[in-house]
Amino acid sequence: MRRLMGWKVILMNVSFYYHRAFSSQMVSIQQVVLNSRPGKNGQPVAENFRLEESTLPEDLQEGQVKVHTRYLSVDPYMRCRMNEDTGVDYLGPWQVSRVADGGGVGVVEDSKHPMFQKCDVVTSLNWPWQTRAIVDGKVLMKLDPQLVDWHLSYFLGIVGMPGLTSLLGVREKGHVKPGANQTMVVSGAAGACGMLAGQIARLEGCSRVVGICGTDEKCQVLVHEMGFDAAVNYKKDNVAEKLLEYCPDGVDSYFDNVGGQISEVVISQMKKNSHVILCGQISMYNKDVPYPPPLPAQTEATLKERNITRERFVVINYSDKHAMGLVQLSQWLKEGKLKVRETMVKGLENIGAAFESLMKGGNIGKQLVVVSEG
Amino acid sequence: MRRLMGWKVILMNVSFYYHRAFSSQMVSIQQVVLNSRPGKNGQPVAENFRLEESTLPEDLQEGQVKVHTRYLSVDPYMRCRMNEDTGVDYLGPWQVSRVADGGGVGVVEDSKHPMFQKCDVVTSLNWPWQTRAIVDGKVLMKLDPQLVDWHLSYFLGIVGMPGLTSLLGVREKGHVKPGANQTMVVSGAAGACGMLAGQIARLEGCSRVVGICGTDEKCQVLVHEMGFDAAVNYKKDNVAEKLLEYCPDGVDSYFDNVGGQISEVVISQMKKNSHVILCGQISMYNKDVPYPPPLPAQTEATLKERNITRERFVVINYSDKHAMGLVQLSQWLKEGKLKVRETMVKGLENIGAAFESLMKGGNIGKQLVVVSEG
After folding, report:
1. Which of A235, A285, B190, B261 is the most buried (most CB within 10 A)?
2. Do B333 and B148 touch, CB atoms closer than 8 A?
């Protein structure tokens, strides 16, 4: 009898493994890998990315979490990750034919990590570009959907890294004082950070906020929806002249997302003892220069003569202020004090196109990819 | 000449390595290891821990951070870590002759992790019991000292895990409704969590808060400093009678830190559809029982008959609410709405004694060890 039972167990096991190996128990997923690094002109294109079919194992190891991706973020900094050497100390490069990753938000489907349970909303700065993924719970952060009234994409924008970048950039490097009649200029002003930075500068006490962006539609949004006092279309207007007109009392602080010629013009009009908030330099990311990119001698001289600060701002270095920042942003959002715009692209397969578009200024507000809807 | 220069370089290197290997470049530290697990009666004693001299290497690896320990926390849950099997799914055991660890706060002295810089204030749930330590930056969290007006020990109490436990325990499991004339009873009420839980219950809308603790001095502190309506000394008073007297409208919620007989008495007086916030069970930790420990049949029957909820509350499962919680606690602290008491012991060498004392109820408020002063 004992022997018979032994056979029975073995047969059951064989059947079980057969079932596992040859049935559809593996979970089919899609993923996006880096197909190639950008070519000689440095411009990234959708074809630098490639969609692949893959599978996930059905079973989790201890500490692992299976997540269903809802939204993925594409951000200008990712251009640096497309290079073999990112040039940025805290960023590792993406590898060709390996899954890319970045900011993401999703929902837990299964967990063998004690801190995460099914249906938890979670985020990571290194979310794999996959429809579903099995990740180490250590890389995940649990999110409270009430902070965004269940508008989960906001965790990648206003109540996420762009929001914190704008808030802490203004607070840590902007030297904004309420009642001091200050003017802030924002470049890349219709992007995720710029749009919020201008609004936050106003909330923090700037009396005048002027944006620089690349289309008339963006100018309209900034002035009529986001409360900017004025906006300059750098592709059409003479930026120097327009800034003189819109900033009659001079420029006290400059939230810089773009670098290059636009920044040279703005800096040339900044006051003595004023401040550049060095957030990003998107105009330079396709060029083979270190970060932050070097300035022309004339601009360097202006900074020195006028005692203008221009300190690199990296939001992850201010993690001590992230809790306070997220709560503040959530509160302003709920009070209607911060307006939001998002540019959504549907489908993981379109993430390369979304990134290409972002790098060409095709977005108004936060550029996102909707991978699955709730 | 080339050869000579070569020799010079070699000699310099020899001198350099000689200096490194034989001079006092290694950093001397003290550390506390688990000396032995508790004996048969289960009571932990100071001698279960042992102070040792050790050294740290001078140089950091990439990603590492060197920290100078300021405060270490001792907490009742650590009793479970003294067992070979903790009985708690998210807690690993301490190993004999290995450095113990727990909540800690300190200051960065050196960093090869991009997110941490010298003088940053940092914390970890797994801070090694050492005067100084080299740790992976991944286990550290940067803290904003302004949240506690530079009173850094508060990061281990009111604006730390005990504060979050009290706040989220009350909010998630307490079902407190302002204006509903509710009464909350708190056991272990003079401990780090109990003291805050009672105050928070009041802030959240309870109209009556009654504490249970083990000395008259603790009762005095609860009633005269912390705003409790009444306090019961369970070592002297008849708890059942006193609760009947102090809770004339019955008990709506019970923040339980102790378990055992006290909890049986409280539960016997709870209303229909009321709620136990199962935070801790210190009275049972020296016994060989799983967590949460089983209840007597009579108490189980009471819970069932009266539809009393008694759900396990584990603060790390609510990490999505930690940001909001820390900001709320900091705000109440600054507004003077939450009062704080700490019991400080000086010197890493006394951490075993501090833990022994904590487990015997020797503390009022948060029990801490001061390892170094700022």
Report:
1. B190
2. yes
Q: What is the mean pLDDT of residues B194-215?
A: 98
Structure letter (DSSP) for residue B373: -
Mutate to test the interface with B, among A144, A146, A328 (most CBs of B within 10 A): A144
Peptide bond into A57 cis (omega under 30): no
Q: Is B291 helix (H, G, I), strand (E, B) or coil?
A: coil
**Two tokens at A206?**
């700037």
Of B117, B138, B317, the CB nearest to A115: B317
Q: What percent of chain B has pLDDT over 70?
A: 93
Confidence band for B356, pLDDT divided at 50, 70 and 90: very high
Q: Cβ–Cβ of B319/A115 closer than 8 Å?
A: yes
Q: Which residue of A has its CA nearest to B323?
A: A323
CB under 8 Å to B320, separation ≥6 — which residues?
A120, A121, A142, A143, A144, A145
In angstroms, the CA B344 to CA A27 distance is: 54
Q: Does A214 or A16 have the greater pLDDT score? A: A214
Indicate the burial class of A36 (C-beta count within 10 angstroms; 0-12, 13-18, 19 or more).
middle
Q: Please determine, for residue B5, whether its predicted confidence score (pLDDT) is greater than 90.
A: no
Angle in degrees, 0-180, between the axes of helices A192-204 and A161-173, rounded to the nearest 10: 40
Q: What is the pLDDT of residue B41?
A: 87
What token pair was written down for B3? 């050869």
Q: What tokens does A21 get? A: 């190996």
Mean pLDDT of chain B: 93
How many Å lie between the alpha carbon of B111 and the closest alpha carbon of chain A? Answer: 13
- Nearest by CB to residue B114, choosing from A90, A117, A320, is A90
Question: How close B341 comes to chain A (CA, Å)?
Answer: 24
Domains detected in chain A: 35-157+340-370 (3.90.180.10), 161-318 (3.40.50.720)
Show the beta-strand stretches assigned E in A257-353.
270-278, 309-312, 342-346
Contact A121, A143 (CB under 8 A): yes
Report d(CA B366, CA B283) in Å as an integer: 18
- Cβ pair A317:B141 closer than 8 A: no
With b meaning 16 or more CB within 10 Å and e meaning fewer, what string describes B313-332?
bbbebbbbbbbbbbbbbbeb
Taking only the tens place, the pLDDT of each residue in B152-202 is 999 999 999 999 999 999 999 999 999 999 999 999 999 999 999 999 999
The gap between the terminal CA atoms of chain B, to the nearest Å, is 53
CB A135 within 8 A of CB A67: yes
Beta bridge partners of B216: none
Q: Which residues of A touch B321 (CB under 8 A)?
A: 144
Regarding pTM above 0.90, the answer is no
Handedness of CA B313, B319, B320, B325 (dihedral sign): positive
